Amino acid sequence: MRFIVTSNALLKNLQQISGVISSNTVLSVLEDFLFELSGTTLTLTATDLETMMRVQMEVSDAEGSGRICIPSKILTEYLKNLPEQPINFNINENDLSIEMSSDIGKYRITGERADDFPKEPAPSDTSAFTMPSISLLESINKTLFAVSSDTLRPAMTGVYFEMEPNSITFVSTDAHRLVQFRRNDVNCPAKDGFVVPKKPLQQLRATLPPDASSLQLAYNSSHLFVTGEKFSLSCRLIDARFPDYKAVIPSENPYNLTINRADFISALRRVSIFANKTTNQVVLDINGNAVQISAQDIDFSYEGKEMLSCQYNGEDMKIAFNAKLMIELINNLEGTEVLLELSTPTRAGIFKPVDTVENEQLLTLLMPLMVGV
Amino acid sequence: MEQEPDIKQRKIIHIDMDAFYASVEQRDNADLRGKPIVVGGSPEGRGGVVATASYEARKFGIRSAMPSKRALQLCPHVLFVRPRFAAYKEVSQCIREIFSRYTDLIEPLSLDEAYLDVSEDKQNIGSAIEIARRIKQAIKDELNLTASAGVSINKFVAKIASDLNKPDGLTFISPAQIEQFMEELPVEKFFGVGQVTAAKMKNMGLHTGADLKRLTEQELTHRFGKVGGFYYKIVRGIDNRQVQPHRETKSMGAEDTFPYDLTTIDEMSAELQKIAGNLANSLLRHQLKGRTITLKVKYSDFKQITRSLSFASPVADHETLFDTAVDLLVKSDITDKKVRLLGISMSNFGEHKPVVMKGNSVQLELFP
Hints:
The complex is a heterodimer. Chain A is 17% helix and 43% strand. By secondary structure, chain A is α+β, with helices and mostly antiparallel strands. Chain A has three domains: 2-116, Roll (DNA Polymerase III, Chain A, domain 2); 127-247, DNA Polymerase III, subunit A, domain 2 (DNA Polymerase III, Chain A, domain 2, Roll); 249-369, DNA Polymerase III, subunit A, domain 2 (DNA Polymerase III, Chain A, domain 2). Chain B folds into four domains: 12-18 and 88-175, Alpha-Beta Plaits, CATH 3.30.70.270; 20-85, MutS, DNA mismatch repair protein, domain I (3-Layer(aba) Sandwich), CATH 3.40.1170; 179-234, 5' to 3' exonuclease, C-terminal subdomain (DNA polymerase, domain 1, Orthogonal Bundle), CATH 1.10.150; 251-366, 2-Layer Sandwich (Dna Ligase, domain 1), CATH 3.30.1490. Chain B starts with 11 loop residues before the first strand and ends in a 5-residue tail after the last strand. Chains A and B meet through strand 27 of A and helix 3 and strand 13 of B. Chain A: Pfam families: DNA_pol3_beta, DNA_pol3_beta_2, DNA_pol3_beta_3.
């Protein structure tokens, strides 16, 4: 088979899927892109056995059709170093030779047999629903950072997709914090749930266009299949039950503290520089309508303190959090002000944006640090 | 030598589930049956290790605690399955329930292995072989899994016996057979004999139990330290360790003695990488996380040091174990030292409600 494609267009498409390829794999075919030519459509596929992703692009002067695996490293390396220009691919499926010629020169590499490339899992017994690309993108952005890396608790190493007939909720937790992001503008087929691993979500985050184009999400008991206009991704689901997260969301945290988000983050960033590096502990000392943020590292005699004004309706309280986790959490909220709902210094604090967005509901939890006295 | 008179002859069963995690996966998923599968870490990245390999996978030379990458090299079409510990725990509880029909003296060693003392069984069956047979049958009928059993008069012999006819085996070593059995046993099968000790023994011309038996207790203690006394007894079929229900794991460790002394930090960290992997694997198998990591270093002059570090919250992963061990090693000033043994151990388990010292703080958990 042969075809002509411009170097930049091919590189751009390959870079969309190259993240799937694992850096140290043992099967050499997993280091390859699968090229499939049919008519003038070229389909490119990458996989690490857990996740498989494909994109399609149009090529010109196509002759014949066929499939071959091309080593990813050398191909992308070559494309990156080539000034934009058309490349003529001439592929012989029998001896697996791949010849790439451009105005500058001629290059030859050897591929691998397409039949050795892993097959995509069959999308059998699936249920499906659609949602706009930008909605899924935002949901991933809002939740992925709080995913656990603790392999002892596999369910928590992914984002939980919890479906209801008129909504979908994305939940992630690392046992210290939890993010729950609900969208009320998605119609799901049934009350159901599954846990998607981190890697395919990172891949989707890098690929999904931030527009309203429609995505199809189909799933069965073992896999998720996401199909967009120009790409498709399938991945194995995490085979573990997500913890009963609703049980840990406090139903009533009576004390509300409202504070300017940007000021709060800046103060936390400065004060936490002086905190103990292992705990990152900062103490919020809430007193009337002011909160004192303080941190210290006894070992080095470091200390930092700042005072911020806020609105607060509860009893005076001293509560400690890990500043790093808290900054990430508040960064993830939007709007000018943030609302903290508290109850006691050893119970989870709820962090919410004050301004709400239509059809979206974001709730995050952070467990405090218990301070020895 | 005869049994010590104050100990009544006991009836001990050692039950070991066959390729436990892998068998549960194959039982629950028809697609995996008859295929080489590995339950454990994925072969990507570092640290993935085989927790259990199915018997089909073992034919390719795949073994527990082997890096998953190596498993994939040995058998490129091996299927990797993520462990579902909740499921194994559940099955393990069912197995213990079956044991408890016959005795309350159960000492679980892990989810898939236990000692039972059936000297006096609840149903007055009287025969330990019959009890072992019934337990195996119940495991097969009720759980659709197979186990291997070893029956004898002490823990050591029972454990070795269960390993003789795997899978689905039942091996009885009668008191009369024990001496001959122990004499024929290769030294590496002895409890606590690792590769290095085995090599050392072979150098001294000690290949089987019979060779060990020729040495006096003094000679054994002199050559192998404290454990020599244990070998002396065990080779005569004496093992008075009781079956202890509710044994709590206080610490868990992995260590290695090297055939030659290590002198560079690179060599040592390469070994620590392996040791950390083994320990992470055992911790994973036992579902344990600890807060204290201890590094043990023995120098060529047999001087030994330990250094430890405690964490605010429990850890168990390979990376933390390795990084901490290397940190501790670097801090312990190893310049110009020859190192013959390195070990990492984990302790301080299961403290869900940690005691918080003044000036310290602990991150609270959402899902304790």
